[in-house]
Amino acid sequence: MRRLLPASPASLLRSPDLPFLLLWAASILAGCLLYNDFGLTWDEPLFYQYSDAVGYAYSIPEWLSGTFNLENAYGPSAEGHKIYGAAYLLAGRNVTRALQALTGINDAGMWHLTNFLAFEIGVLYLCRLCRRWMSPPAATAAALLYLTQPLLWGHAFINPKDMPFATLFILTVYAGFHMVDQCIELGVEAPAPRQVETLPQRNERLSTWLAGALGLAAGGLSVLLAAFGESWRTALGDLVRAGYYAPPGSTAGRWFASLASSRALFPVDYYPAKVLSAYRWVNAAVALAALGFIGVVLARRFPVQAQALRRFLLEVFSPPPALAGTLPSARWTRGHSSDHPVALRAPRLADGDPHSGSPCRGDRFPCVPAPATTAEHVAPPVLREPGCSGDAGLLAVPVA
Question: How do residues 121-133 score in pLDDT, each as one tens digit?
C-alpha cells in the first residue's frame, strides 16, 4: 500500500481505508481532550529533566570547553538514565516546546500529549504494515485492537520510554519492508563482462577514489581536532598572545598587525576568543565535509541501495496530496500500471503532424497509447511534456 490517503476527496470517500481513518482521527481527538487527566508518575519528572539536559552531550562548544563531563547529560538521575537512549527525548522536547508555545500551557503535562501523538503514529503505521497481508477490515481491526488496549492506552500518555520505543519498532519494520520493495522494484543487474574502460568511467572511478581519500582525510582531521582539543586551543591561544605582545617591528608583530589593525582598542583575551570560535566552526565544517565525501563514495559503491533510499526519503517527505496541485510546474506525474516500465513523454516538436492535431510527430514517431488503468497496481512515475496533452506523446517509438 503506497498511500494511506487517496489523492482526491472523491476517492477518499470510496477508499476501503476510510473507516480506519475516521476512527483514528476520533481517537486523536479523544486523546487531545483527555491528556491532562493523567497525573505524573514518580519517575516522569526526572525523565523530563533528562530531556532538558541531554542536549549537553551533543554541544560542540561543550566538547571543546575542556570541562566536558558526560554525566551532566543525564540529568539528576544519571545512573538510572544511562540505559535509555536520547533519540525520542531530543525530538519530543522540541514538539513539547512547540505545543507549549502554541497553547500557552507550560506544565509538564504537555509531555503527555507528545507521548500520545507518538503512540498514534505507531497505530497508523501498524495499520499500513497490516495492509501488506490483510484486507482493509482485518487491518483496521488489528490496529484498533492495539489502540484500545487499556494498558497501552494509559501508558501512551504517562510512559515516555516504552510506548515511543514500540512506535519506533513498528516504523523500523515498516521501513525495512518498504526498502526491500524499492530494491526489488529497481532490480539488481548481473555484472556485465569486463570491457575497456571509457573516459567517463575512468573519470567517475578517479573521482570516487578522490572523494574517499578526502573523506578519510577530513574524518581523521576532525577526530584529531576533537580528541586533542585542549592542546590545540592552548597552542592557538599562545600563538595569538605571542603576536599581540610582539614588538611592532618584528615579523610576528607585523603579521599580527596586518590581521588585527585595531588591537589597541581590545584586550589581549579578545583575540584568542575569536580564534577559538573560528576553531569550533572549522571543526564542525571538517566533520560535515567528511560525512559528505563518504556519502558520495557509498552512493556510488551501492547505487541500487542509494536509489532506493532516495526514493523512500522522497516519498516520506513528499507534500500531502492536497498540496500536490499547488506546486509549480511539476513534471513527474503518475502513469497507469506498475506492469509497464516508466514511460517518457516525447519532446515537443514545432513541426508536428498537421493532420493529427497533436504537437507530437505522427509520421515517424507514432504516439503509443497508455495502458488501461487498473486498481490492483500502483502507477509508476511518468515524465510529461507540458506541450503534449491527453495520451498523445507517450514514449515515441521510431518506425523502421
Answer: 999 999 999 999 9
